[in-house]
Amino acid sequence: MRAELYHPDREEISLDKVLHALSDPIRRDIARVMHLEGSRVCGQLDYPIAKSTLSHHLKVLRESGVMHTEIRGTARVVTLRRDDIESLFPGLLDAVRVTAPERRTAAV
Q: Fewer CB within 10 Å: N-end or C-end of the chain?
């Protein structure tokens, strides 16, 4: 039996945790991709890092309230919680350049 994934309720989302989650360039790029392209299956995220490291980044984003992860069979679908973040911290996603197109570099 699978355990439920933790997602903070809107009122539990704190600015400190969101800023921490978005302070990492890979996590910020994941949020940017979600903003531009919508929900993604974890396997569609292609970064030059170990799968365990990607899982850690997704967990930080989820537990901070930036992302929502839904388990569908063996897949995990990740979605940006844009409405929650914008409601709590208007303009934050623009300020950390999540909504602005960026050039992806090999260093990501």
A: N
